[in-house]
Design brief:
Length: 315
Amino acid sequence: MIGGKKVTLQLDAQDDAGDPRTATQVAQRLVDDKVIGVVGHHNSGTSIPASRVYRDGGVVQISQAATNPTYTQQGFKTTYRVVATDAQQGPALAMYAAKNMSIRTVAVVDDATAYGQGLATEFEKAAKAAGMKVVSRDATNDKAIDFRAILTKIKGTNPDAIMYGGMDATGGPLAKQARQLGMRAKILAGDGVCSTDLPKLAGPASDNVVCSEAGIALEKMPGGAAFAKRYEARYHQPMQVYAPFSYDAVHIIVDAMKRANSTDPAKVLAAMPATDYRGVIGETSFTPQGDLKHGAISVFTYKSGKKALLDIVKM
């Protein structure tokens, strides 16, 4: 019961196709549909342009996966996220590489997207601060599948590691081709690469990847195991990485509705700053900008085609 009435939630699902322009059109459609809140978008390149539409419409937006710091640095009161930022993820990965892997030299490559470029830049800054030498910085694009030219150039510098800011669809081939070229450099990457599909894309080279996720690993989430079991029973497929974050984001909006005792988007939005919610991913509360107060980064590798947790870095 909210405002003395029984409320039934309905899903208004839209597809932005990973395209910034489409994302703004989708966002306007949702605002016109008078939704109470939005969980999305899936990446920074779509979340950032869409956020302006939600700001204008006065609708709360919680991204379950956007990690570019810019998303919550625009001064909007409508933007929130339930994952750590690249300003946390990049340094966490760099710190782990320096302290736990003894990485001294690194080549940095990104896919020229808001996400990939942002993560790579944050990593590069932290790597230099940690005493690593960045031997090169290159950019490709998010549709590339042939990295031999870039890798051949990098091979000549013989770095201890290659950090890639991008997604698994391109990070997998990069790791695979690096091995084919006889490179021994470790592949470092963020959450875009750190998927259960990576072994299919990289083959045995996935075992050479160390990657981070902008959140607590499923096995360390308070409700992670039970959630995964329910998810797989219902959808008959392995749980997607950001499913628990999406789930909690929905419940955080519902929690704000209950505290506001209203389904009015303006009142729900006004209740968001006081969020103190405990769900599948743990305790969630926000900074004034809409970031998590206590972000955590999980670091993984792959062993025989399966993800294996190495460490959790608290930021």
